[in-house]
Here is the input.
Amino acid sequence: MTATDDDRRVDPGSPAVAELPDTEKLPEAVSLETEEGRRLAAQLADEKARHARKLLEVRDLSTQFFTKDGVVHAVDRVSFELDYGETLGLVGESGCGKSVTALSLTRLVPDPPGKITSGEVIFDGVDIMKLSSEEMRLLRGKRIGFIFQDPMTSLNPTLTIGFQIAESARLHLGLSNRAANDRAVELLSKVGIPRARDRMGDYPHQFSGGMRQRVMIAIALACDPMLLLADEPTTALDVTIQAQILELIRSLSDEFGTAVILITHDLGIAAGMCHRVNVMYAGQIVETGVVDDLFENPRMPYAWGLLDSLPRLDEERGSRLRTIEGMPPDLIHVGDDCRFAPRCPYSRDICLEDEPQLTEREGPDHLARCWGTEPGRAWIE
Amino acid sequence: MAVQSTTIDRKLAERPPASLWRDAFERLLRNRLAILGAVIVLLLILLAVFGPFITPYEYSQTDTQLVREARGPANPGEAGHLFGTDILGRDLLSRIMDGARISMTVALVVQVTVLLIGVPIGALAGWFGGRIDNLLMRFTDITYAFPDLLFIILLTVVFKDTWFGGAMDGLLLVFVAIGIVSWVGVARLVRGQMLSLKETEYVEAARAIGVPDRKIVTRHLLPNAIGPIIVAVTLGIPGAILAEALLAFIGIGANPPRASWGTLITDGQTWMSSEPHLLLFPAIAIALALLSFTFLGDGLRDALDPKLKGKQ
Amino acid sequence: MIEPQAAPAAEPATGQALVEAENLKVHFPITSGLFQRTVGAVRAVDDITFDIRKGETLGLVGESGCGKSTTGRALIRLRELTDGVVRFDGVDLTTLKRDQLRKMRRRMQIIFQDPYSSLNPRMTVGSIISEPIETHNLASGRGKLERVKELLALVGLNPNYTNRYPHEFSGGQRQRIGVARSLAVEPEFIVCDEPISALDVSIQAQVLNLLVELREQFGLTYLFIAHDLSVVRHISDRIGVMYLGKVVELGPPAAIYETPAHPYTRALLSAVPIPDPRAERRRKRVILTGDVPSPANPPSGCRFHTRCWLYERLGRPENCRTDDPELRIVQPDHRAACHYAEDAMQSDVGVAHIGAEPIKRKAFGAGPGAHKPVADDSVPATLVTGVAPDEGTGGGTGGSGTGGAAPPE
Here is the structure.
């Protein structure tokens, strides 16, 4: 394997990105002589530079776990990009590598047994893999926020909620105690906790599951991060509470322009929340595309089968569900083949002989990893 | 890792069925320290059973030669005594081997007593719950709060002249007394196991099928509770051996000429400065026994702990 | 099974009731202090009445803590009732003696949510499945083993796996073992307590299809408990919605999903994510505020009024706070417990996506592009015998992943 997915990537004109501001077209009234003018020009130039690059560029990221049974290829040469303010879904079943991908992005993979074995992650122009662990720690708290599935494991049960939120603001933003406290109250009310000031002194166990997840979001947003990593943020919650939390994440990301990577196994959540979706299978991205396009016209049988196996609220009922037979492969014995081939009703000999790459399909920014839909070769309709 | 289930499935066709017991045993075999512990424990048990046939001397036999020469105790290696002799010219190795007999008997009697009292009380409390649970657990608390030493002394005094008090040179009484003050931990453990296992869905499934209560207990509850009990009992043995040694140290227990490791240490410390081997050898013996049981117990816990299951 | 065929929707069951619950109450006492004095009660199930007809599947949905699992267990007397009556085929279960109840258990079974805790880890698959057979003396010796193998094959597992232990199987396979255990007594009624919520998405559909097939094959009656409204809709002939220990709405899927009459049902429907980005954008959401109140101290009047959007919209009518609404008929065979059900039915909350054209995709696994998976050739024969092409073959197909060609034999 020498060719990387990157070679075949096209530069997407992602619809999520706003029109690029152009310094050439500065209003004539703005003179570069005045300080105001220079400031405005610099601001526009800065914004242009930002739009030219992505918030996050991941290239050939591989993470492996070295276990007694062998090397587990948990994340295998994953490449993707994320725009400023964009919401990207990372979708797949348990063990597909979606969570490990998120951990790798922030270098939080437990080592041992895990190790990031290759790849680069460029976050806002900075190569994360080259940062010292101290710089990494600062980046994590300040510019990348986290929300996990179970807020109880990430909240310290012996400290008050107020302290835990304020601590982050104090540490990373250098706020005074009083200012940090005010910020914490503001954040708590922003995430929809009633009587925020009164609840600052409460401990995590005094909150319900949904409320704890709100607190987690407040902590994640304490330093106004550029990226929010949400790993199954609503899996432990009831459906009406899930709707609350998703709505909260959506509105906050709109308000602050925070980019979100939403990791979920629920295709419905991805459909409602994301601009773009990466479908993962057996450690690899098998399909990526703008959400409408991907859901309407999946070009990789796994993504397709997954969508078809869901009973839906808005469909005829009573029919037999289509299923993907079999189980995902183990990630120790991986070879040069399509990892989905053994379960794929469309597979042909080439699928077992050669590994398909993520290549372009029709539709905006739509890539798929499948011989059967590969242009010029396709045998799947 | 989540890949574990598929890894297992892939192997399923190839390997023989693996019960949890078998898996646990394989894990135990991989634990070197536990195996070392098990080997020493086995040696001690063999020593306790066959000791009298292989000891070089009777434990109470005085080396008359030494006495005639009117000299002090033999040093290790001298005059055919590998560990030397004590002040009265008795072979120390033989006395330590006889002490092993006592210590192993302690291990056995105390833990059997603990099991006989602790398991039924814990099981009844956990299975029935409610009032019965409340009653039994308060009784357990009271037992726990009662001063151990006082209880043992009281018991030995009360039963001194009965058959029970005389059995095994009075040792049985002391051992049982130690057991009676030590069952609380096991009772609480069994109760906790019962309470949590009772709520599992497989027990509920058995109820839904209509399996009689008796069979639910014997087939579903006890086999799943037995792992932690084995661990607790093994790890409780060092405490029992130590308790006996401590009692012997203050004069309760083995009567001369018999000597447990505790009394050997008591005697040894009197001559500590001039004849250090009299203290050293029994002390090493007791330390070795305690460590071995602890290693074995730790190993068993790691092997049986279902939380580690599958996480290799 | 590669070629999916549309199973006929179960016939609308209008026949007699198999299970009837009348004023069913299950309260769990809250005790405190040294003498365990009762200081209150968690009203897990609080005075509900409904029936399940012969051959039908009644879906029961609601959020955690609404009492749906307790209801399911109370129906087969795995929980003691605080009050009320449960009749099974006309027999009052609450009055049965121990032995009579044990005989009755042959006719009603349960499938659990967690495939990891529902099988005794110390027992082989064979002894797990033969336990019900022994308990009711249905077969012995050779016949028992044959029956166990037959059951394993029935749920799509390799019949030779009788001497395996549960931890050697994946979640989906374990769930199949649980299904085989409950089928062993040839029951008429099975409580399915969230049988697929613990499984992975692609495995969920496999198990759901299995349950539907078994229902057709044996004419089973199901109580299907779930929190996922789309799954319940897929499998049920009638659906009950529970909130805080009460059934708030009961009716056929068409009524529940198209003209829901309880504001809570509408809120639930609007909260379920739909795997269709356009439908998602078109939806009219009602985000319920606040958390579910504690069942130990439920609100007065209508229990839902503290979170109800309709209550707010109608200007907080007083009877919502004071009167507990009855489960009343709002349409033929459709009941709802809301004073203002008619107003709720006129809203488009939770149903706005209906009527719009759903995403059209060509069906997965069909069409001229498809041919037999190559993988089938590489599956060792021993594994394929009698096994439905599901996870059971995973061991074999996984083998083809190693080098890409040679079968592991």
